Amino acid sequence: MFMKHFFATFFLVLFSTLVCAQKEVYFESIDSAHMKVRSFHGVEVSLLPYKTRMDPFQLDKFSLSGYIGYAYEKAVAKTWTLRLTAGLHTVYGDNLRITPSNQVEWVKQTDLIGQVGVEPRWHYTFKQRYASGRGGLNAGWFLGMVLSMELSYNRDYAVYNKTLRLLPTWGYRSSLTPRLYWECAAGVGGYWYLSQYTNLMAPQLDYSLRLGLTHTF
């Protein structure tokens, strides 16, 4: 059931992306010799329809995350950037837990998850979009490889959970103004628990679908 909801949401976002792409802001064209992605930083807010909690003591049934964080995007080649991020997820959803009477029950709970990450990105449609005046803020389709570390706290067991994620992603970015853009991205990868109880376990399957808005400086 989750997979159906995940892919249905993904294709809905993809369809919206193709429609909204026709309304994005245009930038003044520059000589092709200067055709290169640029560096900038900004504040990002995102919505994740499904957020893996990555807690070995809990199972996810449903979760929704709101994210706010800082992002720095460094141009490292003509169509490549290195993206550094740090932020906080507020995750709300159903958790499976054991009560003091040893009963198993689903409860709704809000968790905070801190995250830092690095992501190399290939903006593979940038040159064509730049030539047509639509490449501002590195807009267009991109492929990325997200490597991130997450830290959360389990209140029931009073332990901190550290998790390493590796997530290949595919996404699209569109400029709304010269300083504001939105983007969506989806990916399938894996994550590893890093804690005093689990050490480095076998990778677990991870999904990600994100819709975000970023104001740059």
Pick out its properties.
single chain; Porin; mainly beta; 217 residues; 8-stranded antiparallel β-barrel
Q: Secondary-structure map with pairings?
A:
Layout: H1 2-20, E1 40-48, E2 60-75, E3 80-98, E4 104-122, H2 126-131, E5 140-154, E6 159-175, E7 180-194, E8 204-216
Antiparallel strand pairs: 1-2, 1-8, 2-3, 3-4, 4-5, 5-6, 6-7, 7-8
Which class in CATH terms? Mainly Beta
Placed side by side, the strands forming the largest sheet appear as: 1-2-3-4-5-6-7-8
User: What sort of overall outline do the alpha carbons produce when their principal axes are compared?
Assistant: elongated
The tally of domains stands at 1
Task: Write up what this structure looks like.
- The protein is mainly beta and 217 residues long.
- It has one domain (40-216): Porin.
- Helices cover 12% and strands 57% of the residues.
- The chain is built from two helices and eight strands.
- An eight-stranded antiparallel β-barrel has the order 1-2-3-4-5-6-7-8.
- The radius of gyration is 19 Å and the shape is elongated.
